[in-house]
Amino acid sequence: MRISRKMEHVHHALQLGHSDEHGFRDIKLIHNCLPGISSDQISLQTSIGELNLSSPIVINAMTGGAHETEEINRELAAAARETGLAMAVGSQMSAIKNPEVESSYRVVRKVNPGGIVFGNLGSEATLEQALRAVDMLRADALQIHLNVMQELIMPEGDREFCGVLERIRTIVDQVGVPVMVKEVGFGMVKESAEALFQCGVRIIDVGGAGGTNFAAIENARRRVPMDWLNDWGCKTTIALLEVLEAKHRNQIDASIIAAGGISRTLEVCKALTLGASAVGMAGSLLKVLREQGTEALVTQIVTLHEELRLLMTAMGANSIERLHEMPVVITGETAEWCAARGVD
Ligand code: FNR
């Protein structure tokens, strides 16, 4: 039997790994030799929109929709439950079209009944489909992903991207849970963020380049690859600074999630210091899960939390809000891009 597209994505994501070209090397955190706080005062609590999270790390959307993906979602959900992380499922459109595969998503709520769970659909979704996706999981929020370049590289992908903002506006107004709009690794810029803010979106995941690369993944699936598109998109640090610029310039009370190639504590801390309210991690957590198992994934997340507390102590920030006020130095390509684009 032909391997499902969902499992092909998992295999290729693991095989291709991360490029590490996410821009975080351009960000320097500043040591504070007089932090004036103690480690046991550090709080990792944060909020995105109206949701309160005990950790700023979110397990980002990956999978569901095929038999083999149920096991992955079960294990990710178990790790989320053990560590208190919020978790998104992968696109639920396959279950909306074929209810037989709903269990591969519902397993997440079954394993973690009290956890924070995000549904996920593409921007082609109607309000009715969004309501069904939320209902399927009793989801606390709904992610809507934007993945234009991935679709364009897929021979069977969408070619029509009209009416997206209108559909998002309707869903934001009527779906009844917070809506976050996310990229999948090509990044967002300030103009796109402004358009989303105008539609009432108040949570954006910048999904920048430098981690899981859906151009490379789809090219690995193509008979004739279009490898010249593998560097398309905007690095995570740049996307984050662009979207933060749109938020500040328009004085919007929005929560920004950094994602795209984040795997180490330093990257988590740099993203939060730049102004992200949370960070999404997908490929790097999937790798630990598939190569080392659920227990190792729990250990990895606990270690990230411990190391984040260590860094926050060394910076004198006892909360994520205080981290946002800490100075950083921005160098290299990220600084050059920001200067060219008028991003402060
Ligand atoms: C994804 N991602 C994703 N995103 C989404 O909104 N819906 C989806 O169905 C999927 N599917 C998916 C499958 C696999 C195997 C991976 C690794 C990722 C994208 C993901 O949520 C995230 O935006 C990107 O992967 C960038 O983050 P990382 O992987 O670099 O941390």
UniProtKB/TrEMBL annotation:
Encoding gene (name): fni
Keyword Isomerase: yes
Any one GO cellular component localisation term in the record: cytoplasm
Any single Pfam family the record assigns to this protein: FMN_dh
Family: Belongs to the IPP isomerase type 2 family.
Record's protein name: Isopentenyl-diphosphate delta-isomerase
Task of the protein: Involved in the biosynthesis of isoprenoids. Catalyzes the 1,3-allylic rearrangement of the homoallylic substrate isopentenyl (IPP) to its allylic isomer, dimethylallyl diphosphate (DMAPP).
Record flagged with keyword Translocase: no
Top-level class of the enzyme under EC nomenclature: isomerase
Boundaries of every FMN-dependent dehydrogenase domain copy: 166-325
HAMAP family referenced in this protein's UniProt entry, alphabetically: Idi_2
